[in-house]
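User: Run a structure prediction on this.
Assistant: Running it now.
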Amino acid sequence: MKIKVESDSEYHDESKHPFLQNINEAEEKTLIQKAISQTFQSTAHLANLLPTGTVLAFQLLSPLFTNEGICDPVSRFMTAALVTLCGMSCFLQSFTDSFRDKKGNICYGFATMRDCGSLMLRFIDFVHAFMSILVFVAVALFDTNVVSCFFPAPSDESQEILTSLPVGIGVICSMLFVAFPTKRHGIGFPLSAN
């Protein structure tokens, strides 16, 4: 069986009909398009603000430290220490930044009170640090091992609070992260183009 390929340069020239066409930036966007674009950009920034690495470490260590939810005083202390250390990690990660220097090298650092360009400490850094701790607490309250370790037999009211509080914290903090974005790129997060 022979396959015959006919080549017509008029239809196969990719420079004339590219698969992904360049969009002219000068075109005016409608108000709805601008709003949708801003929503997607803000949602994409959430991944840079939430303590994902700390949460991963917590979820790996939590079943070990809590003895799968059956805690004695030693495992309860170890679980409290794990939650505290991970919370402190979330707080400190909010003050880290990475940027490119004039030579194009990636530099890392902590925000300080001194004016060091992008590393200067701002009020929004404290807001984000506090919200990161709240988000981590919400994740910890979603973990059944942690909840059963600290609250082995909760009342109906306590169970209702333990169920709805993490969801409320997550929703409110996500909205605040979107409403008040930061320009920081924490250590390990990708840099923006500018």
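The beta strands are 96-100, 106-110.
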